[in-house]
Amino acid sequence: MLVAQNASAARMPVASLLSFAIAVTAAAPAAAGVQSATAADAKPAVAAPVDPLFDCYRLNYAWGFTLAGSVVGRDGTILHYRMRDKDRSPKPDREGGTAFFTTAPLRAKFETAEAAGHVEASVLATQVALVEKAAQGTVTRADTGTRDAGTSTCHAYVRDAARDRYRDIELGSDGAVSDSRVTNSAAEAQQLIEWLRSVGVAK
User: Fold this and answer.
1) In a shared domain, residues 19 and 101
2) What global pTM score does this model have?
3) Are residue 101 and residue 19 in the same domain, yes or no?
4) What pLDDT score was predicted for residue 176?
5) Based on C-alpha coordinates, what's the Rg of the chain?
6) How many CB atoms lie within 10 A of CB 137?
7) For residue 67, is it within any domain?
8) Which domain holds residue 106?
């Protein structure tokens, strides 16, 4: 059928030939519902500041500064991010033993992050429900004897909109090799790290 159409097209005037070509292109079926993927589709840009809930990252100063991690936003988006050469990560303010991050600097940490997946709202809500119990755990640090490996830790962030900040809850180290190991004694903290590992955020 296409050969016959092409033969007919050869005898068409230029304007008609152009219309014919457009019609044939529009009629071509998509392959089994598969959408074509552009570079932007593969690595979609972050359209708005990330409102972070969970964050696991590896930090190393041994051979120059490097930081790489993954964050789960409040909308369920999982994003990967990286910094090299210049440390632009936010510095916490401390009240007693609790660390807080001002909103703008913390969100700026993820401004070049690339979307990599998504968590369903119901699943995310189940994990968020564990955060306050994880916050009640005792956090300890121990030297592992390893050198120049940096640290690899996971955190939960609790939004304090009234004071324009986030409370940082250390969940502990993930499974990556590290110079030091952070442990949160709460069982919920370990549950959260295991879940973060299952969705590709923790190591």
Assistant:
1) no
2) 0.75
3) no
4) 87
5) 25
6) 19
7) yes
8) 44-198
